[in-house]
Specification:
Blueprint lengths: L1 H4 L2 H9 L4 H38 L9 H25 L5 H5 L7 H37 L9 E5 L3 H4 L1 H9 L4 E7 L8 E3 L2 E3 L10 E6 L3 H5 L3 E4 L12 E5 H7 L8 E4 L2 E9 L14 E5 L6 E6 L4 H15 L8 E2 H7 L2 H35 L1 H9 L4 H35 L10 H27 L3 H5 L3
Parallel strand pairs: 5-10, 7-9
Antiparallel strand pairs: 1-11, 1-12, 2-11, 3-5, 4-8, 6-9, 7-10, 8-9
């Protein structure tokens, strides 16, 4: 659209020598369609080249197959794009009378000017919103990675009890503990990370009969808190030093708050019709992702019902220690493969979608910035070419290069500032709504939205500045010699 105006005299000359409006319409639309076809071919090539990387980032298995449906979609998209991009010179410029054009009395269209500026503002709005999204996603991922979970997930492996381990769990655990690189070993009903079995069957003195509180249930073995680094808020955990712990129970802090027990140690609760004494309260730990609120949880000593062995390994000795664990495992399960996983990997898997969003948003933000800069560069180039004589006259009259750059860049600065004003509330709403998916999330600070705006403004100044420096460096003689 910017370049089309510079061809206005071409339109006048062609119409003066007999070209009809229809001829000009077909000519300009043809140019636009040709450019669109070239762009489409380049896009198809880029898709073919980038699909493997896209699949790697997203975990998908997409492939490019040019079937009839896709071909029709591409043709329709190409035609619509070509018509839209070529409609301005084709229908607007071809409608002017040759005499008006060649006399130079053609008035500038306010709508035409605002259409170009509006497109650049729109591009920068998208860029700023995407930069904001990248920052918010990054901060939330960092928050998830760094927040204290209430347990130590590092250097902990887990694997299922199978074969001889099911029949002799204590023997296996004792042999595993004898390995030099193993710090602690225990077993649990299911991996610590993720949802557990749930029950409403917990009653206690003073409970409102109308309350239906859903408790997470964990089947535990001795030494589980030591293995996982879970801290006790009060009381103790199950211990071999005490007999009768199978008739005891341990709750987390959230459960005690929900139950309204002020001094829980020694209190008796009824679980599925069996009375159990509370001997301890563990500090809250995040056994689910940060999408979920902490839930009330209780642990019961039921070693034979545990399904997963968890082992804490000394840092720096992982490979050696796991090899020795595998040897003991195969003594209990001859011929079976030792299939294990690290607990921190299981934890990270909960946020796989967010991590993919973080990576993709960075790519999209980069593309949006690139496209915005291209649009701004095009507009800056057009305006500079249109005002070259004005620049030369100002230089002849004593204007400095810096003064001219400030004058020419002011309009673009206002456009980006307008984009910032529009983008900030949009960025806030998008970020706020995304964060609502997390029960535990970062707080949105003012600088989270200011920095993307300043980044966009800096990028715009650099983009425009490069073009302006080139313009003011041209000698006034070269620009004014034809006057």
């Amino acid at each position: 659209t910017a370049k089309a105006t510079s061809r206005i005299k071409e339109v006048g000359v062609k119409k003066a020598v007999g070209a009809r409006k229809n001829n000009l319409v077909y000519h300009y639309l043809g140019e636009s369609m040709l450019m669109t076809v070239i762009s489409m071919l380049a896009a198809i090539l880029l898709v073919i080249l980038l699909i493997p990387k896209f699949n790697e980032i997203t975990g998908k298995q997409l492939s490019f197959n040019l079937n009839l449906n896709l071909l029709l979609f591409l043709l329709i998209t190409g035609v619509i794009t070509g018509l839209l991009s070529g409609s301005y010179p084709a229908f607007y410029l071809s409608g002017f009378k040759p005499a008006v054009i060649l006399k130079g009395k053609l008035e500038k269209s306010v709508g035409e000017l605002w259409a170009r500026k509006g497109l650049v503002v729109f591009q920068f709005v998208l860029s700023i919103v995407l930069i904001t999204a990248v920052m918010v996603v990054y901060q939330q991922i960092q928050f998830v990675q760094s927040k204290n979970l209430g347990y130590d997930k590092d250097n902990v492996i887990y694997f299922e009890k199978r074969g001889g381990i099911v029949a002799n769990p204590e023997t296996f655990i004792n042999e595993a503990k004898s390995i030099a690189g193993v710090l602690e070993v225990s077993s649990i009903g299911s991996p610590l990370v993720g949802s557990k079995a749930t029950t409403f069957g917990v009653d206690w003195e003073g409970k409102n009969p109308d309350d239906d509180i859903n408790f997470e249930q964990v089947d535990a073995n001795y030494d589980l808190t030591e293995t996982m680094g879970v801290q006790m808020a009060s009381g103790r955990f199950f211990s071999r030093d005490f007999s009768g712990d199978t008739s005891k129970i341990v709750f987390n802090e959230t459960a005690i708050k929900v139950m309204g027990l002020e001094d829980p140690i020694g209190s008796v609760v009824n679980v599925w019709g069996t009375e159990l004494e509370i001997i301890g309260v563990v500090k809250d730990f995040h056994f689910e992702s940060f999408h979920e609120e902490l839930k009330p949880l209780f642990m019961m000593l039921r070693p034979l019902r545990t399904q997963v062995v968890m082992a804490k390994i000394a840092a720096g000795r992982e490979q050696e220690t796991i090899g020795q664990l595998e040897q003991i495992y195969k003594q209990f399960n001859p011929g079976a493969a030792f299939e294990f996983a690290f607990l921190d990997q299981l934890y990270q898997a909960q946020y796989l979608a967010e991590q993919r969003v973080a990576v993709l948003s960075r790519y999209f933000a980069g593309l949006a910035i690139l496209i915005s800069c291209l649009g701004l560069l095009g507009l800056a180039t057009f305006n500079t070419e249109r005002r070259m004589k004005e620049i030369s006259i100002r230089k002849v009259l004593g204007a400095t290069n810096l003064g001219i750059i400030k004058l020419l860049s002011g309009d673009f600065t206002r456009m980006v500032l307008l984009a910032i004003m529009v983008a900030l509330p949009i960025g806030y709403l998008v970020s706020h709504n995304w964060l609502q998916e997390f029960a535990y999330r970062i707080e949105l600070h003012w600088w989270t939205f200011l920095l993307p705006g300043l980044a966009a403004l800096s990028i715009a100044w650099i983009t425009v500045g490069i073009q302006m420096v080139k313009a003011v460096g041209i000698s006034p003689v070269d620009s004014l010699k034809d006057e």
